[in-house]
Protein backbone atom coordinates (compact mmCIF):
# COMPACT_ATOMS: atom_id res chain seq x y z
CA UNK A 1 0.00 0.00 0.00
CA UNK A 2 1.42 3.45 -0.91
CA UNK A 3 2.57 5.61 1.98
CA UNK A 4 0.03 8.45 2.31
CA UNK A 5 1.88 10.26 5.11
CA UNK A 6 2.51 13.95 4.30
CA UNK A 7 6.17 13.28 5.11
CA UNK A 8 6.44 10.58 2.42
CA UNK A 9 7.94 11.20 -1.00
CA UNK A 10 6.14 8.23 -2.52
CA UNK A 11 5.27 8.93 -6.15
CA UNK A 12 7.45 12.07 -6.34
CA UNK A 13 10.10 12.51 -9.04
CA UNK A 14 13.18 14.13 -7.48
CA UNK A 15 16.47 15.02 -9.16
CA UNK A 16 19.53 15.46 -6.99
CA UNK A 17 22.52 17.32 -8.38
CA UNK A 18 25.72 16.19 -6.68
CA UNK A 19 25.32 12.85 -4.96
CA UNK A 20 28.64 11.04 -4.79
CA UNK A 21 30.33 12.83 -1.85
CA UNK A 22 29.85 12.15 1.86
CA UNK A 23 26.75 14.31 2.26
CA UNK A 24 25.43 13.64 -1.23
CA UNK A 25 25.38 9.88 -0.75
CA UNK A 26 23.53 10.26 2.53
CA UNK A 27 20.93 12.55 0.96
CA UNK A 28 20.33 10.09 -1.87
CA UNK A 29 19.73 7.33 0.67
CA UNK A 30 17.29 9.53 2.60
CA UNK A 31 15.29 10.35 -0.53
CA UNK A 32 15.19 6.73 -1.63
CA UNK A 33 14.15 5.58 1.85
CA UNK A 34 11.30 8.12 1.72
CA UNK A 35 10.19 6.33 -1.48
CA UNK A 36 10.95 9.07 -3.98
CA UNK A 37 11.91 8.17 -7.52
CA UNK A 38 15.44 9.55 -7.27
CA UNK A 39 17.53 10.59 -10.26
CA UNK A 40 21.09 11.50 -9.32
CA UNK A 41 22.87 13.69 -11.85
CA UNK A 42 26.53 14.62 -12.17
CA UNK A 43 29.37 14.53 -14.68
CA UNK A 44 31.11 11.44 -13.29
CA UNK A 45 29.44 8.35 -14.76
CA UNK A 46 31.75 5.94 -12.90
CA UNK A 47 30.94 7.45 -9.50
CA UNK A 48 27.24 7.51 -10.34
CA UNK A 49 27.22 3.84 -11.23
CA UNK A 50 29.06 2.96 -8.00
CA UNK A 51 26.46 4.95 -6.06
CA UNK A 52 23.57 3.15 -7.78
CA UNK A 53 25.17 -0.22 -7.05
CA UNK A 54 25.63 0.65 -3.37
CA UNK A 55 22.02 1.74 -3.07
CA UNK A 56 20.83 -1.43 -4.81
CA UNK A 57 22.89 -3.54 -2.39
CA UNK A 58 21.12 -1.74 0.47
CA UNK A 59 17.71 -2.53 -1.00
CA UNK A 60 17.07 0.92 -2.45
CA UNK A 61 16.71 1.95 -6.08
CA UNK A 62 18.04 5.11 -7.68
CA UNK A 63 18.45 6.19 -11.27
CA UNK A 64 21.55 8.01 -12.49
CA UNK A 65 22.14 10.37 -15.38
CA UNK A 66 25.01 12.49 -16.61
CA UNK A 67 24.84 16.26 -16.74
CA UNK A 68 27.20 19.20 -16.98
CA UNK A 69 25.62 21.99 -14.95
CA UNK A 70 27.96 24.45 -16.66
CA UNK A 71 26.09 23.82 -19.91
CA UNK A 72 22.51 24.96 -20.41
CA UNK A 73 22.21 22.54 -23.31
CA UNK A 74 23.18 19.64 -21.04
CA UNK A 75 20.73 20.76 -18.35
CA UNK A 76 17.90 21.10 -20.85
CA UNK A 77 18.65 17.68 -22.30
CA UNK A 78 18.46 16.14 -18.81
CA UNK A 79 15.20 17.98 -18.14
CA UNK A 80 13.72 16.69 -21.38
CA UNK A 81 14.83 13.10 -20.68
CA UNK A 82 13.23 13.15 -17.23
CA UNK A 83 10.00 14.69 -18.54
CA UNK A 84 9.85 12.19 -21.39
CA UNK A 85 10.15 9.30 -18.93
CA UNK A 86 8.12 10.61 -15.98
CA UNK A 87 5.99 13.45 -17.43
CA UNK A 88 6.82 15.73 -14.51
CA UNK A 89 9.46 16.84 -12.03
CA UNK A 90 8.33 17.25 -8.42
CA UNK A 91 11.55 18.42 -6.84
CA UNK A 92 15.24 19.06 -7.14
CA UNK A 93 18.03 19.05 -4.58
CA UNK A 94 21.00 21.21 -5.51
CA UNK A 95 24.00 19.73 -3.72
CA UNK A 96 26.62 20.18 -6.44
CA UNK A 97 29.74 22.07 -5.38
CA UNK A 98 33.19 22.78 -6.76
CA UNK A 99 36.00 23.66 -4.34
CA UNK A 100 39.14 24.37 -6.38
CA UNK A 101 40.44 27.06 -4.03
CA UNK A 102 42.61 26.05 -1.08
CA UNK A 103 43.90 29.37 0.26
CA UNK A 104 43.12 33.09 0.38
CA UNK A 105 46.19 33.75 -1.79
CA UNK A 106 45.23 31.37 -4.62
CA UNK A 107 45.26 32.56 -8.21
CA UNK A 108 42.07 34.30 -9.30
CA UNK A 109 41.64 31.67 -11.99
CA UNK A 110 40.54 29.27 -9.25
CA UNK A 111 37.98 31.79 -7.99
CA UNK A 112 36.57 32.11 -11.50
CA UNK A 113 36.48 28.32 -11.85
CA UNK A 114 34.47 27.92 -8.67
CA UNK A 115 32.00 30.54 -9.90
CA UNK A 116 31.21 28.37 -12.92
CA UNK A 117 29.64 25.68 -10.75
CA UNK A 118 28.70 27.37 -7.50
CA UNK A 119 27.16 30.52 -8.94
CA UNK A 120 26.49 30.30 -12.69
CA UNK A 121 25.84 26.55 -12.68
CA UNK A 122 23.60 26.85 -9.63
CA UNK A 123 21.45 29.56 -11.21
CA UNK A 124 21.29 27.79 -14.57
CA UNK A 125 20.18 24.54 -12.91
CA UNK A 126 17.50 26.09 -10.76
CA UNK A 127 16.15 28.19 -13.61
CA UNK A 128 16.01 25.25 -16.03
CA UNK A 129 14.18 22.95 -13.66
CA UNK A 130 12.28 25.64 -11.78
CA UNK A 131 10.72 26.81 -15.05
CA UNK A 132 9.71 23.22 -15.87
CA UNK A 133 8.02 22.85 -12.48
CA UNK A 134 6.39 26.26 -12.81
CA UNK A 135 4.72 25.09 -16.02
CA UNK A 136 3.10 22.30 -13.98
CA UNK A 137 2.40 24.80 -11.17
CA UNK A 138 3.89 22.56 -8.53
CA UNK A 139 7.28 21.61 -7.15
CA UNK A 140 9.89 22.07 -4.46
CA UNK A 141 13.52 23.14 -4.76
CA UNK A 142 15.93 22.51 -1.88
CA UNK A 143 19.36 24.15 -2.04
CA UNK A 144 22.14 22.77 0.14
CA UNK A 145 23.94 25.77 1.57
CA UNK A 146 26.04 25.83 4.76
CA UNK A 147 26.14 27.61 8.08
CA UNK A 148 29.28 29.20 6.59
CA UNK A 149 26.88 31.20 4.42
CA UNK A 150 25.44 32.69 7.62
CA UNK A 151 28.59 33.45 9.65
CA UNK A 152 32.20 34.42 9.21
CA UNK A 153 35.18 32.12 9.63
CA UNK A 154 36.47 31.41 13.14
CA UNK A 155 40.26 31.08 12.66
CA UNK A 156 40.71 29.65 16.18
CA UNK A 157 38.99 26.43 15.13
CA UNK A 158 41.69 25.72 12.55
CA UNK A 159 44.83 26.77 14.41
CA UNK A 160 47.56 24.14 14.29
CA UNK A 161 45.82 22.12 11.57
CA UNK A 162 46.08 21.94 7.79
CA UNK A 163 42.36 22.63 7.49
CA UNK A 164 41.14 25.75 5.68
CA UNK A 165 37.87 27.09 4.27
CA UNK A 166 38.73 29.40 1.36
CA UNK A 167 36.80 32.65 0.79
CA UNK A 168 34.91 31.49 -2.28
CA UNK A 169 32.97 28.98 -0.18
CA UNK A 170 31.62 31.72 2.10
CA UNK A 171 30.75 33.86 -0.91
CA UNK A 172 28.85 31.12 -2.72
CA UNK A 173 26.96 29.76 0.27
CA UNK A 174 25.93 33.23 1.41
CA UNK A 175 24.85 34.10 -2.12
CA UNK A 176 22.90 30.86 -2.37
CA UNK A 177 20.83 31.83 0.67
CA UNK A 178 19.78 35.20 -0.71
CA UNK A 179 19.19 33.84 -4.20
CA UNK A 180 16.97 31.21 -2.59
CA UNK A 181 14.82 34.03 -1.20
CA UNK A 182 14.68 35.72 -4.60
CA UNK A 183 13.77 32.46 -6.33
CA UNK A 184 11.04 31.77 -3.77
CA UNK A 185 9.51 35.14 -4.64
CA UNK A 186 9.94 34.59 -8.37
CA UNK A 187 8.33 31.15 -8.42
CA UNK A 188 5.81 31.54 -5.61
CA UNK A 189 2.87 32.53 -7.79
CA UNK A 190 3.54 29.43 -9.93
CA UNK A 191 3.22 27.09 -6.96
CA UNK A 192 6.93 26.23 -6.77
CA UNK A 193 8.57 26.44 -3.35
CA UNK A 194 12.27 27.23 -2.88
CA UNK A 195 14.10 26.67 0.40
CA UNK A 196 17.62 26.11 1.69
CA UNK A 197 19.26 23.82 4.20
CA UNK A 198 22.38 25.04 6.01
CA UNK A 199 24.27 22.12 7.55
CA UNK A 200 26.91 22.64 10.19
CA UNK A 201 30.12 20.67 10.34
CA UNK A 202 29.80 17.01 9.35
CA UNK A 203 32.16 14.41 10.77
CA UNK A 204 33.89 12.36 8.10
CA UNK A 205 34.62 8.84 9.40
CA UNK A 206 36.64 8.00 6.28
CA UNK A 207 38.88 11.07 6.56
CA UNK A 208 38.48 12.35 10.13
CA UNK A 209 39.04 16.02 10.80
CA UNK A 210 42.07 17.05 12.85
CA UNK A 211 41.73 16.17 16.56
CA UNK A 212 42.41 19.79 17.54
CA UNK A 213 39.56 20.95 15.34
CA UNK A 214 37.14 18.34 16.67
CA UNK A 215 37.93 19.23 20.28
CA UNK A 216 37.31 22.94 19.64
CA UNK A 217 34.27 22.50 17.43
CA UNK A 218 32.17 20.28 19.69
CA UNK A 219 31.53 22.81 22.49
CA UNK A 220 30.61 25.46 19.89
CA UNK A 221 27.39 23.51 19.29
CA UNK A 222 24.53 23.05 21.73
CA UNK A 223 24.63 19.29 21.20
CA UNK A 224 28.36 19.04 21.86
CA UNK A 225 29.38 17.28 18.65
CA UNK A 226 29.61 17.43 14.88
CA UNK A 227 26.76 16.12 12.74
CA UNK A 228 26.66 12.74 11.09
CA UNK A 229 25.84 12.93 7.38
CA UNK A 230 22.66 10.88 7.91
CA UNK A 231 21.26 13.63 10.16
CA UNK A 232 20.88 16.14 7.32
CA UNK A 233 18.56 14.17 5.06
CA UNK A 234 15.43 14.43 7.19
CA UNK A 235 15.27 18.19 6.73
CA UNK A 236 15.60 17.80 2.97
CA UNK A 237 12.87 15.16 2.83
CA UNK A 238 10.61 17.43 4.91
CA UNK A 239 11.05 20.39 2.55
CA UNK A 240 10.36 18.22 -0.49
CA UNK A 241 7.30 16.62 1.08
CA UNK A 242 3.68 17.72 1.37
CA UNK A 243 4.30 18.32 5.09
CA UNK A 244 5.91 21.66 4.16
CA UNK A 245 3.51 23.04 1.55
CA UNK A 246 3.35 26.50 3.20
CA UNK A 247 7.11 26.90 3.65
CA UNK A 248 9.08 28.84 1.05
CA UNK A 249 11.96 31.29 1.10
CA UNK A 250 13.26 29.72 4.30
CA UNK A 251 16.70 28.69 5.44
CA UNK A 252 16.75 25.76 7.87
CA UNK A 253 20.03 25.47 9.82
CA UNK A 254 20.89 21.86 10.68
CA UNK A 255 23.91 22.71 12.80
CA UNK A 256 23.35 21.37 16.31
CA UNK A 257 22.63 24.90 17.52
CA UNK A 258 25.95 26.37 16.41
CA UNK A 259 24.43 29.51 14.86
CA UNK A 260 21.80 29.88 17.60
CA UNK A 261 24.39 30.74 20.27
Describe this structure in words.
The chain has 261 residues and is α/β, with parallel strands linked by helices. The chain has a single domain, classed as Rossmann fold. The protein is built from 7 helices and 7 strands. A 7-stranded parallel beta sheet has the order 3-2-1-4-5-6-7, sandwiched between helices. Helix 5 links the parallel strand 5 and strand 6. The longest helix is centred in the middle third of the chain and has 29 residues. It is globular and about 55 Å long. The termini are far apart. 38% of the residues are buried.
Q: In CATH, what is the class?
A: Alpha Beta
Quaternary class: single chain
Number of helices: 7
Percentage of β-strand residues:
5-15%
The main pleated sheet reads as: 7 strands, parallel
How many strand units?
7
CATH homology superfamily: NAD(P)-binding Rossmann-like Domain
CATH names the topology as: Rossmann fold
Instruction: Kindly provide the radius of gyration, computed on alpha-carbon positions and rounded to a whole number of angstroms.
Output: 18 Å
Helix content: 40-55%
CATH A-level architecture: 3-Layer(aba) Sandwich
- The count of domains is 1
Mean pLDDT: 96
Shape: globular
Amino acid sequence: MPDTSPFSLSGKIVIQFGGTGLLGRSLVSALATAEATVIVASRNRTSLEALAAAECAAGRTVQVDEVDIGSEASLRALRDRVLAQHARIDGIVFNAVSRPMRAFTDDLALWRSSMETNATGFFATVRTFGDAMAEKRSGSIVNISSMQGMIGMNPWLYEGTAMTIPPDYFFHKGGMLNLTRHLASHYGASGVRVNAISPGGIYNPDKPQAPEFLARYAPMTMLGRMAEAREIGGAVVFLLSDASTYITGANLPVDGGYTAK
